[in-house]
Structure to design on (261 residues):
């Protein structure tokens, strides 16, 4: 783990953790919600951090993230990053990992994941919960939360919270899988919680159902109403953009769009 200060050469070539605020934890649970299918995990984790008013404690930068910077509303730019938030109240201790992107290659995922786990190990994390969407390729009316665990003895614990096991098939791609896979080799326990989703569009409904189960597991209560507001705002923006594209096509003689991908 490297701190950003005085590490200019490291910054160019290695994944590193910039400590923003120091917090001490006894036994925190890590919740990961980086971008993935339907942005289900990212929306859920970001909402959790916001509602809990969790404190930003670290930023993770890597040469394995895409070679881009984000242009901010104030006219400045910033690097792509992952961010860790910390929350403590009574016996409840939670770390929340969210971010702009994931590492873009297999080798990069191994390197970034191990650097992350080094940092989380230093904060006494032993349990990891990764979040994601489970693509069905069709619209889902009654969303189920599916799960896969690092160790079979954990199944009963999560079944009591409504997680369904044995239905999810295939592979868990990216950080949601690698944090658990490499984590298991490094003696971490964990589960991937997956909200059923179409997979082709941003799914706020799946994120909301995922959060209900997650909050029960974490023993925290948060307001979920804002997710519905975000959904309405997102759908409005999408509709406006589709209308603009439709008008452009009509003006060029193509008629209305049949689909957008």
């Amino acid at each position: 783990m490297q701190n950003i200060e005085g590490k200019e050469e490291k910054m160019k070539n290695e994944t590193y953790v910039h400590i923003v605020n120091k917090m001490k934890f006894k036994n925190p649970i890590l919740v990961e919600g980086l971008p993935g299918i339907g942005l289900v995990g990212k929306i859920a984790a970001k909402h959790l951090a916001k509602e809990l008013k969790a404190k930003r404690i670290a930023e993770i930068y890597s040469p394995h993230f895409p070679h881009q910077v984000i242009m901010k509303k104030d006219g400045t730019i910033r690097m792509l990053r992952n961010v860790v938030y910390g929350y403590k109240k009574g016996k409840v201790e939670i770390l929340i990992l969210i971010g702009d992107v994931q590492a873009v290659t297999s080798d990069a995922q191994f390197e970034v994941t191990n650097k992350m786990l080094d940092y989380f190990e230093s904060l006494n994390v032993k349990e990891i919960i990764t979040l994601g969407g489970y693509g069905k390729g069709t619209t889902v009316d009654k969303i189920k939360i599916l799960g896969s665990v690092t160790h079979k003895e954990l199944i009963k614990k999560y079944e009591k919270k409504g997680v369904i096991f044995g239905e999810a098939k295939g592979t868990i791609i990216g950080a949601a899988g690698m944090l658990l896979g490499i984590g298991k080799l490094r003696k971490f326990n964990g589960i991937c919680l997956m909200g059923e989703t179409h997979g082709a569009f941003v799914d706020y409904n799946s994120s909301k159902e995922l959060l209900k189960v997650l909050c029960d597991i974490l023993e925290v209560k948060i307001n979920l109403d804002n997710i519905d507001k975000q959904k309405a705002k997102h759908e409005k923006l999408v509709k406006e953009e589709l209308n603009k594209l439709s008008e452009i096509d009509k003006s060029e003689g193509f008629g209305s769009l049949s689909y957008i991908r």
Summary: The longest strand covers residues 127-135. The helical segments are 8-13, 40-52, 106-122, 155-159, 175-185, 204-218, 225-251. The first helix runs from residue 8 to 13. Confidence is low (pLDDT under 50) at residues 1-6, 256-261.
